[in-house]
Each structure stands twice: as structure tokens, then as C-alpha cells.
Amino acid sequence: MRYSGFKVIKEALTGHKGWKPAWRDPEPKAHYDVVVIGGGGHGLATAHYLAKVYGQRKVAVIEKGWIGGGNVGRNTTIIRSNYLLDGNEPFYEFSLKLWEGLEQDLNYNAMVSQRGIINLIHSDAQRDAFTRRGNAMILNGADAELLDAEQVRREYPYLNFNDARFPIKGGLAQRRGGTVRHDAVAWGYARSADSHGVDIIQNCEVTGFRVENGKCLGVETSKGFIGAGKVGCAVAGNSGRLMGMADMRLPIESHVLQAFVSEGLKPLLPGVITFGAGHFYVSQSDKGGLVFGGDLDGYNSYAQRGNLPVVEDVCEGGMALMPMIGRARLLRMWGGIMDMSMDGSPIIDQTHIDGLYFNGGWCYGGFKATPASGYCFAHLLAKDAPHPTATAYRFDRFRTGRMIDEKGMGNQPNLH
Amino acid sequence: MRITCPHCGERDRREFYYRGAAVDLDRPAPDAGEKAWDSFVYLHDNPAGETRDLWYHEGGCGAWLVVTRNTVTHAVLKTELASQARS
């Protein structure tokens, strides 16, 4: 069933009796060509592109809970492609281009809003670094614009430009960045994948892999054994737990990242503001809530909740940047578990086990990557070769010294 | 989260700097080979449950501690001086 304005009017006139579930609820079959583990944004996107672009007809997504119940529903919904390094920027720009065509591709309103993102500049050194980054973005086909303080002031006059420690001296803007309604991304991909024949199997937890003679034959689940020609794992946040079932240790640690939303306010913030120096970023949702966050709690964790020191740190950052935020009341706060990799960049690669593929290590940047992650993982699963924009996301880059370390922090995941 | 320093007693987590998994106590020999070093530097256990990690009491006595804690509940189970945990 295609969604359209005409369909909405027709249903409105006939008592809304014609709407059908957006996806089926099938029982697992005995065997699939490809089984994708993880019914989050990346897993569902993988299934969508496997079926629609790469023509795979027997695909299943298995999810231990309900689809979209993990990090795709717990992030702060920002999309952007403002990276520096060659291994990253083409991939994230590919992702941003996919976002731009996503709703037509899925026939689903994901409320993609290119409202722009500005990274604030506070010093000459930071301006140099952001100028370099902006040039790298432009060289890779993205858009970037260096703003001086007056240009930032015209758009955000209420920011604290004269903070003693971090006065605002300008910003690096990416106008094509913005926000997307995150739940709709999961639902849109699920609906489209389902319409192309993908079985989405919820409440089906993986309990092990069946590996014989170095080849993965399928997965053991709470609904029994499911055979598979290929198995793709896309469970960022729980990658360590899942791959541990295949006796793999990963260059990834799990960390908790908190996010916050205020009560609904009248339109205030036209775009996304990041205050990296103060560990704070903020945007405003279409419902009016200020959506904001900051740094990781900083220690390995699998608890989907954080501790108070970071709450205090984020609120201090908000007050320093935008003193009026102190008058808004906090509505909700929550935590999600991040796959923090050893260099801050993701992994989309084959494993040493034949037929077992891995997608993870998204750190706190997984949401914006959703379309390209799905596309590139589908490419890898279908063709056994990396997509041209994802060739650097290999497991062996750590051992061979080819890390993609945007922040230059080395092997300390909590600092990326 | 509060951590009990063997020297200073129970303190706020904010007094401590987090280093990561307590693998630093088992540093391989310089000639141990690529695999051992890859494992030491990049491939750490990442358990959901009990873990051992290194914390530095930078806002207190300056001691390096090995903290045993639960990554699912954030409960701190045991704290010892790194110098003693190693021996």
C-alpha cells in the first residue's frame, strides 16, 4: 500500500478503515540466504538495501525485542557529514545524500529536516582546524561554510558570545545537515524491507552461532535454529555480547551516553548548535522540546542509564552557551549504550568465520550513518567486497596501523 | 557512583580519572609479537557484568586503583591498589 496525500484524504472520508499494518509478523523459515541480526536502524536499512538494491529475495531481520527499540530510538536525531579524514568523509557524505532522497525511496515521511548545523569556534587555532575540516568536506563533495561571529549572532542572537573562557568567534556551518524523526527511520525501513519480501522477526533472541569447519551455517535463537547462507550482525551497543558467542573479541568497548529533552517551547532554535569545547550540543524538536546532550559518562557500561556528574556537566555546558536554557524545565533524560571503537570510527567487514559479517563500532555517530551503513553492509553481504565508500572500515586497521582517528585520541574509547 | 579508595575512603566518582580495562597490569614483553600486542592494545574483554578496570585518584591521593565493578548495575564491588593487584 503506497502512502500519499490522496490516500490520506480517501481514508479520512471512509472512516480510516483501509489502513493495514505497515509490516507483517511472520514466523521464521528454516533457511534464508541472508539473516541480519538486529532490528535497529542499521539492520533494517541493511535489509531494505539488500532487497531493493541488491535483489536478495530471501532475507530475514531478527530482533530480540521490538524493532526500533534500541539506539535508533534513543539518539538525538542529528544528521551531518562534517568529517575530516579520507576514510570517513566520503562515507558520511554518501549517507547524507541518501538521507536527502530517503523519503521518496521509502515512501515514508521521516521528517528529514535540513535545518543546518553549526560547530562553534572559540579560538584562532580552532578556526584553523575547522577551516581545514571545511575544505576537506568540500573536496569530498559536501557543503561547508565558515562563519564569523556576526554571522552566528544573526542566526542565534541569544548565545553567550562573551563567555570568559569560550567566547564565540565564529562557526563551521553545514547547511545540509539537520535532524530526522528517528523512530520513523526504523519504521520506514522496516515497512519498505517488508514490502520487498524481507521477514522481520521480532522477539527472537540470538543465543548462539552454528559454526562448522570455519563456516557459519546459521543462528540459534529463542525461536529455534535459523539456517543462513550469510549472517550479518548489526547490533551496535551489544556487539561485544553477540560476537562473544562466536568467540570473537572486538576493538570495541561499550559506554553509556546520556541525552536530555526539555518541556515543549515555542520555536527558538532554527538549527543544530554544537559547543564542542563545552561538551554540549542542542537542537529543537518539531514538538518544541530542546534536545541536548554532551559527553559519554566515561567508563565501560551496559546500563542504559547514566550518572549525575555528566548531567551536571551537560547542564553547565548549556548554561555557559545559552543562559536562557536555565529557565526551561527538563522533561526526560535517558542513556543508550554505544559501541565505542578504539579509534572512534566504525567497522563494516567480514570476520574470520566464513559467512559471518560484522557492522558496528558506531560510537555516538550511528544515527547519521544509518542509510550508508545499511547500504554498504548490504553491498558487502551481497558481493563479498566492500562498498567503495567503506573500504577503510576494516577489522585489521588496528593491527596494521591504519586507524581512522578523527580526534587523535589513540586507543582510549572513552575519549573519542 | 562512589569508589572506595584504600587510602582515602569512599569518594565521589568525579575525583577519579578512568583509564580503561585493567590490562595494563599484564603488559606483554617488547618482543612478544604482533598478535600479543594487538590483543593488549586493542582487543579487550568487554563484559556485560563484572569487570576490572584502572582508575587514577587524581582528585585525591594520586594512587592507581584496580576497581572491580558491574557494568550492568554500576555497583562497585572491590577496590585495591594497582601496585598490590599486580603482585
UniProtKB/TrEMBL annotation, chain A:
Catalytic activity: sarcosine + O2 + H2O = formaldehyde + glycine + H2O2; sarcosine + (6S)-5,6,7,8-tetrahydrofolate + O2 = (6R)-5,10-methylene-5,6,7,8-tetrahydrofolate + glycine + H2O2
EC number: 1.5.3.24
Cofactor(s) required for function per UniProt: FMN; FAD
Predominant location: cytoplasm
Pfam families per the UniProt record, alphabetical: DAO
Keyword entries, A-Z: Cytoplasm, FAD, Flavoprotein, FMN, Nucleotide-binding, Oxidoreductase
Residue span(s) of domain Rhodanese: 34-78
Coiled-coil region list: none
Localization per record: Cytoplasm
Family recorded in the similarity comment: Belongs to the SoxB family.
Name this protein carries in UniProt: Sarcosine oxidase subunit beta
Organism: Ruegeria spongiae
Classification lineage: Bacteria, Pseudomonadati, Pseudomonadota, Alphaproteobacteria, Rhodobacterales
UniProtKB/TrEMBL annotation, chain B:
Database matches in InterPro entries: SoxD, SoxD_sf
Pfam families listed in its UniProt record: SoxD
Protein name per its UniProtKB record: Sarcosine oxidase subunit delta
Native organism: Ruegeria spongiae
Taxonomic lineage from the root: Bacteria, Pseudomonadati, Pseudomonadota, Alphaproteobacteria, Rhodobacterales
